[in-house]
Every structure is written in structure tokens, then in C-alpha cells.
Fold each of these.
Amino acid sequence: MKGLVIGGVGILHVFLAQFAIGGGMLLYYFERLAQAGVPDTRKFVDGYFKVLVLVSFVVGALTGVAMWFTTIQVGARTIGIMLDEFHWLWATEWVWFAIEIVAGYAFYRFGPQLDDKTRRRLLLIYAGASWMSLFWINGILAWQLTPGGWLDGGGMWAGFFNPSFWPSLLFRTAVAATLGALVACVVINTMDLERAAKAALIRRASRFAAPMALMPVFAAWFMAVIPADSRQWLMGGSMPMTMFVGVAAAASTLIGGYVVVGLIVKKLYINGATATMLLALAFGATAAGEFVREGARKPYTVRGVLYSTSMTPDEVTQLRKDGAVTKDPYPLRDEARYPTAQLRHGAKVHRALCDACHTVHGANALVELTRTWTDDQMRLNVSKLQRTKGFMPPFAGNAADVEALVQFLRWETAGAPASWPISDTPETLAQIATWLDEVGTAPMGDAR
């Protein structure tokens, strides 16, 4: 399933990027402590920055390129709209990213040779540039779920400063600070210091995770401003979505409880194993949170503009008349495998309308999702897809497309036999057409 590739790469990239932002801010804080004469902080800064550069710059850069590559392959039209609407803001983000990279590598290469004032300025530039990179990216990503006034012709800035911009930005900033603090606890445990000296550094690093206490406020703010149907999926309307909300909340609560109560209030010592476990929990919370953010947009990739099938609402309406694959110029890779033209038709419909999120056999497999349905039940459910599951887009095809898809899935469920009867009776197609007309082409949720 193509979405799993984007999801896997995206989760790792987001985790590393947020660590880079939080790590940069924490390094600037510790550099100021070092210049104030706090013991061992200079040693920590130089050691931590090597970890930051090697992990975040190298792996982060690779996953960033991988994100662009995979999204262009799977969701080229979504990326195209984002670039078309926000090309100058993307360019601005890239400038900040370039500043971040130059400042980071300059400090990595020349840091030990620089005077205190230059070191402090270079780290401030690095930390500020990394956060500004988040600032610009956050607005564009938040626009996908909550376009706000942009839908009414408000222009680029109305789309950028959309309803979920500020809660998302503040939440991600708190996450970044927490990740920086957790990695710091791991790094401190690897330093050749006495336990008391390590404990003193850990206490200072743990203060950087204090913004975690505000994350529930930012999360509640985010939930309040997203579209009503998206909020319903997260709060029980879709059990997988609700489960991931629970995973993210539970992992964050465990981390926050340990950090705030144990490290900040009680001033407990944390060893490397425990710090690594908390960091792993943070990765799990990040993964669940990104799944929720992506899933909340359904049935769209850009709310009110582009469905997850990479089709606009107007195009869905037109394809109801013309057919889903009438203008599809691409042959099937394994066309000889299908014994009838109807099955080949059904395979093309699956490729056009289902393939972005579903496989035939495998992850989120349509064969397994529909195995217990009767033929008429499948025809009805596919025809009225947005009512079968409200986070699905309307079916973008005609009655012949529905029947071809139904027969294709039935054939795959039966084990792909060498022969298969054609099903195109006027009565069947008329009933499907009636269902398609009844449901229309509007999604279940509002465009906003």
C-alpha cells in the first residue's frame, strides 16, 4: 500500500526534524550556561552537537529527500497544488533550512576554535533558523486540513494562517523541546563524568521538557478548530483513529508524568536505559500523532479541494457521467492475467480509485474488507461509498465501473480462476445507477 511508504518515511523524518529543532534550542541554552561558568556544560555542548549533526542532518536529509520522492510518486497532484499556492513560502522555508545547515556545519567544523560571542551567535542562528523552518512548513501542512478563508478566495496568507496553524505550531514546538531534552539525557549518560555531575546536567536538560505540561491545552485547541467530521473520527467515529489518539495521548502522558514529576519536581536521576525507553515512547507518540494528523483529513488530501483519489469534487461529478477509466491511457501491467474484459476494466477501476490507500491482497486489502459481503451488498456499499464509510470519497465512476470493480474483487476472492462469468445485466446496472443517483457526489462532511 503506497500510503504506508509515505507514512513510514514521514514519521521518521518528522521525529528527526523535531529533534533537530529542540536540540538546537537546548544547545543555545547550554552554551549560555557554559559561558556563565556552569561546570561540564561546554563538554556537553560539543558532544551533543556531534549527535545532532550526524543523526539529524544526515538521516534527516535522506528522509527529507525520500519524502519528496515518495509523495511525488503517490500524491503528485497534492504536492502540485501545495507548490502552486505556496511556492514563495516553500522558497522561504528552503532559505531558512539552508541557513540552518550552514550554521550547523560551521559550528560543527569551527566551534572549538571560536570565541564565546561567536559560538553563542552561531548557535542562536542555528536554533532560530530551524524553528523558522518549522514555522513555514507547519502553515502549509495545517492548510491541508483547515484551509479556512482560503476556500473563500482569501489568498495565500488566509490559507497559511489557517485555524489550526497556531495550535499545531505550539504543539510541535513543545514536542521538539521535549525530544531535545530526552536525547540530552541519553547523551549525558554516555559522558565520562561522575554521577553527581551527570545528575546536575540532567536536571538542567529536563527543564527544557517543561512545555509538555501545555501539550493537552494545544491538543484540545487543535481538536476544537478542525472540521466537525474529522473530530468525530478521532473521538470514536473510527476506532483505528481513536486508538491512535489514545496511543499518542497515553505515551505523552507517561513521558510527561516522568519528566515533570520525576525529573523536574522530584529531581530524580535518570539512567541511559530509562531515557532511551522514554525516547522510544516519544517516537511511538510521534508515529501515532502523525497517523492521526493524516487520517483526520479524509476523505481529502486538501480539504474541500482534492480527494484522497487525487480528484476534485467537480471531476468526480464528471466521471459519474463519463466513467472512471474511459480516458485512462495506461495498460495494465499484467493484463493477460484477467480472463475477461470486465475484469480488466475492474482492475483499472481499482488502480484509479482504490490503489492509493488499499491493496487487493495485503495491507488494508479490499478482498478481506469485502469478503463477507453479498454481491448486492457490495454493489450498494461501493455505490454509496461516502455513506458506507464517511471518511471515504464519493465513488468517481458509473454503474458499469461499480459492477466491474465488484466482479474484479469477487474474482480475486475466489482465487483468480481461469474463467469467470460476465455480469452486466440491464437490471443490475439500472439498480446500481439508481443507488449512485440517490447518494449523489457530495461527501458526508462539510468542505470546512
Amino acid sequence: MKKTSPHLDDSFILNKLLESAYDGIVVVNQQGIITYISKAYTDFLGIDKESVIGKHVEDVIENTRLPAVLKSGKTEKARLQLINGDYMVASRIPLIKDGVVIGAIGKVLFRNIEDLNLLYKQINQLQKQVDHYKKAGGVNQAKYSFRHIIGKSEKLSDARTMAEKACMTDSSVILTGESGTGKELFAHAIHQESARSLKPFIKLNCAAIPAELLESELFGYEEGAFTGAKKGGKPGKFETADSGTLFLDEIGDMPQGMQAKLLRVLQEKEIEKIGSQHPVKVDVRIIAATNRNLVEMVEKGIFRADLYYRLNVISIRIPPLRERPADIDFLVPHLLDKICSRLGKYVEIPPGTMRVLKSYSWPGNVRQLENVIERAVNLAEREAVIVPEDLPETVTEIHDSQVKPLRETLEMAEKNAILTALNLSGGKKAKAARLLKISRSNLYERMNKSNL
């Protein structure tokens, strides 16, 4: 007699999927009552499955945020949660039907931080292998694009828009802005999106090369041009960047003698190597950057006016971080993810620490912010949360000069209120008193006290 195969009903399959898909899963209804919890979760908690069905989730799971999700109706992805003295990583998803939250699901992604750190390290190792294979084809290529420019503030958006327009032309560009604002990032992005994107992107920091070596770095030299010259000579940055882009960082630090030679190359589109009698034609687009005031330097005769006008076809100012504090909300998660990936750690920054970061002026801009976050990631304790104590004192301290005594603040506010009322009333005391909702005699007393 032929045996029939057992029937696989939907509820059986769904139950098996829920039991095996995650390290743990719990479902609550609109009131926060547990309607389902997987065996993996109860084993993790060390409780009996049948005993918790019908109980409120806060009575079963320590520090649960499912009630908060029921109230907000918003998903919380990969958040830390302290259970039994250790941190795990969990996600919480509201169940919404016809616009109404009818329940929520909690999913355990990692039972402890060590598991997550191990995964980070494995992913990081794979990324290093991929980067290794990319290197052969990535020499002298731009590494960044516009997606690496993080922020949505109006000033940054204006700079990005101007840079995107610069991609559509071959004209020279000057990027201005304080140190650490991301000028090199913009230079990479402009080249990456330009018609020269498949050609070389060559960088030279004019401030990092001694004046006596700058000419050979830019234009190269022939064999035997000077004592110590390499056999066969050496190509300069212009020759290496032929058909591509040459990024001249810290152009304001270029010696005046070198400025004249650079101007000639830009005008004639040809270079002459040291020790050579024959010019070589080059096709190079120039993107220059500086944190100095070139207009002021031109007025003082420190920077050549003709070179400035040749370079300053498209000028883009990169705003400092203090002028776009709202972008810190986007920069911190981006930088944190990059740093954690490199260090093989998983760390979170809670709202309290974010408030501290947003209240600081960041004179070193994004570069300083990145350094501070990396320091904090390294100092964060095993619970993987960055607290204000992990930040440098320069970021967390409030200077006494920033806070005035309460009495002085109140007196200043009162004086300003009286002056405003007098201004609006045309100097008429009775009308000013009515605006301030005080008697005329009281107004006179306060005016005398404020020396008005």
C-alpha cells in the first residue's frame, strides 16, 4: 500500500521559519501583551515559553522598547538593548493596518556585541581583499564622488551645485575654505564626474614640497639634469596628469618664482623639463585649493594677480562646519560607520552625546570631528556607547565667559524691553508703560535703574 506524504500546512511552515530565522523574535498586540515568542528567545532569556504568553512585554523582557514603538509607530533598526547585564542588538517593527498600529515585532539580531564585532571584522577583511584587487586599476584615480559629500544644509548644497556645474566644463577651479572642510573631497568629485574621469587625477600639496624641489615635482627632469638625478629622468606631475586633472592643494603657499612658471604653462599649455631644451605639450585641467585669502594676497603683492585670474574661472567656497551645524546629524553616523568598519567595532552615539557634538564650534571642521569620533570609538567601554566623557575636554567644557550671571542677563533683558517699548511709542512714556503692562511710575523707576 502506497504511503502518502505528510501535508505541510502554512502554519507549520510559518512557525518553523519564525523559530529559525532569527536569534529571537517576539510579537505583541496593541496593548503590549505578548502573543508570540520564539523558543530561541525564551532560551536566551532563561524562561518558559508557555508562561510568558499573555503577559505584558515589560514584565518579561528587560529594557524593552516595544511599548515606545507601539506609541510612535516608527521602526527602530539595530539598536542596543541591555539584557542580563550584557548588550544585545535588536530591531523593532510596528505592525500597521489601515493606518493604525495594531502590534509590534521585536527581533534579536545579535545576542551580544562580541558577535557583531566579529562580523564587522570579517566584513572589513573582505573589503580589504576587494580593495587589494582594485588597486591595480586605481592608480592615480579619484577616490571620492559627490555621494561622499555629506550634508543637506543650504550652504553645502550651494557649493555642491556649483561643483556639479564645474563638472560640465574644462575651466580651472579654485576651491576655498578653512582647513578640514573637505576641499580635496570636492576636487575628487569634480574630476570623477567630468569628461576626464577615466584619465589621471594627480595631487600635489604646494606647501609640503620645499621651494627648490617644487619645479622638478611639477615639470620633471631629464637624466643628468643635476647631481643625483635619476637615470632616465623623471616625469613631473603635469606630464603624469596629461589628459586628466592636476589638483594643486595649498596653492596660496606656492613661491612667487614658481607662480610665474605655472602661469606660463597654463597660457602655453606646454612644459619644459629641467635639463631639457624641448617643450612638451600637455593637456591638463587645474583644480586649485587654498585656506588663505588670495584676494588679500594679490592686493599685498604676495600672489600674482594674472595667475589668480587665470585660475579663478570657477570659484567654490566650502563652508566651515560651524556655519552648517545641522549637517552634524548626517556626518556623525557616516563617520562613525566608516571608523567602526575600519577598527572592527560596533559603537553607538546616544542623543545626549550628539547634543554635545552639535554645541561645539569645530574650528578644525570635519577633519577634527572625524578625529574626535575615532578617539571616542577607541575609548568607548565594552557596552559600545559613546558618552560625553569619551570626548576631549575642549569639546565638552563650557567656558565661564560663555555664561553670564543670571542677574546681569535679566537686567539686560529688562533694559532691551524698555528701549523697544520707547521706540515703538515714539518716546511717549505713558504709551510705553501700557505696552509693558506696568504703571508709569514703575517705568520711571526701572529707567533710572537702567540709566536710561
Amino acid sequence: MLNASPFIQAGLLLVGYFVFTLFCYRKVIVTKFQNHKQRHAKTLIAYASESGSGEQLARELHVKLKSQGDPAICISLNQVTEQQLKQADTLLIIASTYGEGEAPDNGRHFLGKLDTFKSTLAHLNYAVLALGDKAYGQYCQFGLMLNQALQCKHCTPLFKPILVDKLDENSIHEWYSNLLSKGLLEEAVPRSTLSSTQLPIQHFKLTGRQQVNLNSPGAPLFEINLAVPSDLTWQAGDIARLHIENTVREYSIASVPQEQSLKLLVREQKHPTGELGLGSGWLCHHADLDSTQAFSIRANPKFNPLDEHKKLILIGNGSGLAGLRGHLKHRELKQHHENWLLYGERCAEHDLPWHLELTEWFNAKHLTEIDLAFSRQTADSNIRVGRCHSGYVQDALLAQQAKLKDWVNNGAAIFICGSLQGMAKDVESMLLDILGQPVLSRLERQGLYRKDVY
């Protein structure tokens, strides 16, 4: 009589091997399944979001559609392909405009790609929710440009673009009401749920204020410290929002929650009349120490840390060092030590914010490379580490282009924080010259090229 035990054991081994193989290839299988769904989705939600609010609204709409059985997908505008538009019958766009009519980074390539699409897309219905701020001249300009470009492709608007001033709740409610009237939503969205886009305001005690660039030829720069509740959380790259006189001023956070303090680096601003700027004047001069200040924390996913351990190139100028310092502190706690800082300021003698800490990080091999660029005076005995360059931070990049290529070829990410006009645009132009458009576009698609500029 045959013994069944060997057959049972063999069967168990085969089952175990099959389960192990599925486990090993689970990411590939999930990715292929998701790609299949994306290619065949009939409703496409696409967002272009600078601060994260547009993405939040898009994902909330995605949840609502999926809950009523619509297999919609939600992706950034840059990720939208011609094939997806050919397969879809409805395109819902939530697009922010920042600065003077500019597109957010995760949407800025879409219009150029759309021009290359050979299909007329006459079958496609679409709607645009355009987010902006009436304080700027080119109010909601990017959303309006998207609307015009889609009409040129013979797409059919479901309704006129809805323009939203500073996340106005009434305008967002109008968006949902129009989607309901067109049959895309099965139920009305209560107004109470719309307040989720408004961030909770908390009160932090101002515990410290110190100018870090005494005698600088540039405007004063202040380190601001605020005590925060022990249970308050945020990520490196997130934004502190000061609420003052019914307005909001935003600042890059320089610290991490483990430090139990909210650290900012604030440049004093002045109007042409000589009057101090509202936010900087208050934090740098007028607010009393130990007084409480109204703040909220805004998530900034486009500038949050990488999920994995990679080399990191950090580029910035002026108060942009705040956002870069937050990432350096985060990576110190994670023991991710392959970091390269390129930082630009005016004067080597007086413009060295947090140089002692940077020196300590360099000596501890947490910062493996430091390049400092000064547009005026470049030599000073206070500089203890790093290479000094005459000019701007993009000039330091040019001088170190061989090293830059080597780091990028070895998987490094590039994070930029600082002024949009001047620094950020000139740095990107230099990166394009050194690395080329294909490489920079690949880094952006992979989430390895991130910016927080203002």
C-alpha cells in the first residue's frame, strides 16, 4: 500500500513555493494590475498642486467616486498619457496657479505633451476647478490655460471653469453641485465636509528670536523658535502658516518634531515705503517673547523626505536654508549620511546662518560635501568647512558639475528650497545644461527632483 505522506509533503512544498513566489513578485503584480486599471479607467481625476490643497481635493473626490462604484483613477497632471485620455470619457482637473500665472511642478509638462497628442479627443468631456489667489494678477491663469487647450483639442466642457479664491468654500461647493447635476456624483456633498480643507489653528509660544546675519549687506535674517505641544507632528518639508490680521503668511519649517520646537528662518521684508512686512515684521520685531502666536501646519508632500535611503543633494539660498535644514535633521535621525549642501548668500563675513551646526555635521560625516557661494565677499576666517565660490549657487553647481553627474548617476535626489525668482530658475537652467532635459525629467517623474520655492 502506498504511503501518502511524500505526496502530501510534495504538495505542501509546491504550495509554499507558489506562495513564496507571489510574495517575491507582489510589487510587480500590484503594479501591473494598477497599470491595467489606469489604462482602462473611464473617469480620470488629474491634479496640479503646489501647496497640496489641490491634491487633497482631488483625492477626496476620488474617494467619493470609488464609494459609488466608479473605478476612477487619480494622478498628477504630468502623469496623464494620451492613451489614458483616449480610453477615458471624463477628465476632472483640479489645478492650482502660483506666482504670476505659473503651473505647479507636477502639472507644468501637461500642456506641452497635449500639443504633441495626435488624437483630437473629441469624445472627452472635462471640467476644471482652478485654484488661485486674487491678490495675484494672473488669477487662476493655469486653470484657464488648461480649459483653452482642451477646447482646442475639441473636448467638451461639462461646465465653465470654476475659479476658487484661497480655497473659498462656496466655490468648492459649486464644483460639487455641478458634478452632481451632471450625474457624476450620486449624492450632494454637505458643506460641513468642505471645511476639511481648512487647517486647524493652534497657538504656539514664541520662545526665541535671534538675528543670524548681523551687519549683512542684505536684509536681516532671524531664527525664530516656538514651543509646540508634544503631540504635534509634521514632516521635514512641511510649512508653518502664521495667521495674522485675517491673512496667512507661510514659512518653511527648519526643525523636526523630535526637537520639540518649531524653528523658522525669517527674512525681514519691507515695503517701498519702508514699512515692515506684516508677517516678518511681527515675528522678527513686534511680537513679544513668551506671547502665543496663531499657527497651522500645512502638509507639503511635494517636498517631504524620500521613502528610501538615497544620496541627497540640497540646493538653496537665503531663508531657504530652513527647509534644507529640516531634511538634514530628519536624515541625521534616520542615519542617512550621504548629503551634499550647496548654499548661496551675499557676504561670507556676515551671512553664515547655522554655520556651526553645518560644521559639526560635516566633521561627523553627516554632510559629506558643502559648497558655499557668495555674491559679494567670498573669503572669511569664519568659514571652517566646505568649498567657497564667487557668484551664485548655480556657479557652484557649474564648478562641481563632474561631482554632480557622479552623484546623480549613483541615484542621488535633488531638493531645492529658496527664492523662485533668480535662484530656483537659474539653478534649474544650470541643471538642464549639466544633466540634460531627459535626466532631469526622469528625476522629476521618479520623485527625485523636488522643489519648495517662493
Amino acid sequence: MSYLETLPTRTEATTTTRPGLVLALACAAELMVGIDVAIVNVALPSIQADLGAGQSVLQWVVVAYGLLLGGFLLVGGRLSDQRGRRRIFITGLAVFTVASLVAGAAQHPGLLIAARGLQGFGAALITPAGLSLIAVTFAEGRPRDRALGLFGAVGGVAGSVGVVASGLLTAGPGWRWAFLVNVPAGVAIIVLAVLFLTRDRSLDRRTPLDLPGATTVTGGLLLFVYALHHGAGHGWVAAPTLALFAAAAALLVAFVRIEARSAFPLVPPATVRNRNLVVANVTGFLAFGALLAFIFIGSLLMQQALGYSPIETGLAWLATTVTIVGAATAGARLVAVAGVRWLLVAGLALLAVGSLWLTRVPAPADYATDVLPAFLLAGFGFGLCGPALQIGALSGVSRSEAGLASGLVETMREVGGAAGVAAVSTVLVAGSGLDGFRTAFACIAVLTVAGAVIAAAGFTRTPRH
């Protein structure tokens, strides 16, 4: 990776027009993408009743979105570098908006699932393009740290907002509006992006996209994420599950060999040699896995063991939502004092304590004393981790590879989240009643401790600004 063409310095950033609008558009798009990860969860029974879908078909309404999102993020990031961040950002928004319209109008489960997959593909273009727009717009240091803090806060609260919004829309105008609400929002963001986002000055158009590399890594990631879903529901040692993991591994090994020989690799060798970037991604895999598993198991705990309704469950997460926003904003400023390494360690330690708190949850449980403290600790913990991970992953990255670095860290978010949820689902199924939930939260604590150890030992130089 060349460090001569770095991301904007403090003086270079002044040449970029409307940085506040760039941040607002990126955050609005990220909110829309993040909400749709969870917005269908509460609406699934209504979708099942309206479209007559079986349970095995219905799960694909959720899986299709995450599958395509996780599989194409890396390619979306690289396309942002080579074909233009603004262009890929707008293209992703257009795909996402059209897919949302199709999903809202769908009269057949198959069409709804296809539309959800198309939404995931659009989201895989939007997220790395939006993150790299922030990276090249704001100067490395406090300006970018604060921007990434807000972007991370939006991403962190989107899931909770999605659960609440799903309950309200399903109980009100109907489940179709969980998708149709994206249409006016998407059109508005597209119009503003077309009118006000500055065109990329210099693009790497002469470098061809590494199609063999893109095909193998996308196929490998798609199969890996699908294998995680399949294994959680059908058993980890079942022949189809093992075959899926073997096929995913074969494609990813082929990707590594292709990259080693390619004249224009999708992931240049210098990227792998950037130790802080690699450590941030490994830590992110574990951290996002722990957080999404915490939200998944926490939601099931409240509904299945504590008797909460779906709307009550969504409202109970507001404590986590609020603390994520506050901690992410503060964490972006604390990077200058503590550095990425120790901010990650502190955040993961708080998340571990919150998980361990729920290993002793009684039945019946009092929300204020048995659940709320854990939710607050988790919110503070991940609020610190989110911006630190993005700052660590983008520190010192060349401007021409900002999209790739963004795609990598977002891929770790999605794949790590899928792996975390699959792992704790298996633990929960193997357990019995409330003891199963307690064991699952203990496993989440193990994930966070592993992430903290890697963050503490892995960074060769703690990035500070």
C-alpha cells in the first residue's frame, strides 16, 4: 500500500465542499441499511399469514438480505475505489430503493425473498461507499474521528430502531410499509447525492476489476454465511453443512491463490501487510459477533423467558440505543487521548461484564435491576468499540484504497455477526430453558475477551490523532 497518496490531511480537507452534507447523506443511508437488517423480524408472522409462506420459506426473508450484504461488501468497497465513490453510492441507493418498492408490493414469497436479496446487494454497495466518502472527505485526526463516531453511532442504533419501527408499522399501516418506507427516503437521498456530492477527481479506471478474485471471494463469503445459517438450523456435522463449509473454504483458498498471481489483485498485498488494518478486522469480527449475538439472545430472552411482547422488547433496547449514541460520540474524541487499542479493550471489557451480568438473570426478572444494567454496559461498550474499529481500520490507508478498507471492516461486521448469532443459537438449542440463555451469554463474554486480547496484543502502534 502506498503511503504517499494518503487520505486527506488537515489542509487537504478544506478543499472538499459540504463535508457536513457528505456525513449527513452517508449516515442517512447507513441508517436505512441498518434498519432493514432487523425491520422484518417483528413483521414475520404477518407476512406469513398474508402470503401463505411456510416457516422454512419465511426464514429466507431474513437470510437473503444478510447473505447478499455479507457476500458483496468487499467487492462494493473495491468498486468504490475504481469506479467512483459517488457513483457506487448512488447506484447502491437506486438498487436498494427499487428493491424496497418490489418487496412492499410482492404478492408471492419468492418475489419477496428475491427483493430482499436485491436489497442486500444494494446495501453492499452503499455501506463501503458511504464510509469511504467520509474517509476521503474528513482530515485524518479529530475531524474524521468525530465523523466516524457519528457514523458508527448510527450503525449501532439502527438495529434497535428497526425492531421498534417494525412493531409500530406492522401494528399500524401493515408489514408492507416496513419496506415501502424506504422508497421516499431513498429517493430523497439519491436526489441530494446527485445534486451536492462532488464528483471524484481521480479514479482508478485504468485498473480492471479482478473478476476471478471478485467471483471466488464473493462466492466463498456467500457460501460461508449460508453455511452458518444452515448449520445453526440443521446441525454442524450434517453432511450438507460440512459440504457447504468445504465449498466455501475451497473458494476462499482459490481466492488467495488468484490474488497471489494477479497483476491487479482485488486485495493488494500491501493491504495484508498493514498490521493495524488486519488486527482491526480480526477484532471487529469478534466484536460484531459478540454484539449481534448479544442483541439476538437478549431479544429471545425477553420474549421467551421473561414474557415481553415484541414492542416491549424493542422499547427495552432503547437503553442500549441511547448509550451507544453517547458512547460513540465520546469514544471518537477519546481516541486522541487513549488511542484505538485501549479504547477497544475498554469497550470490549464493558461488553463482557454486561454479558456476564446476564449469566445470573433470574426468573422472573426485574428489568431495572436484572436486565437494564447489562444493556447499559453493552451500549457503552460497543459505543466505544464501533468508532475505534473504523478509525483503526482506516488509519494510514491510501486514498485509492479507502473503499477496500471500508469494505473489509464492514464485511467483518456482517460475517462476524452471522457467525456470532449462529454460535450462540447452537448453544441455546443445546441448553435447557433459562440455563441455556445463561450459557449463551457466557459464550458471548468469551468472544469479547478474545477480541480484547487480540486488540491489546495486535496493534503495533496505537493510532492516535
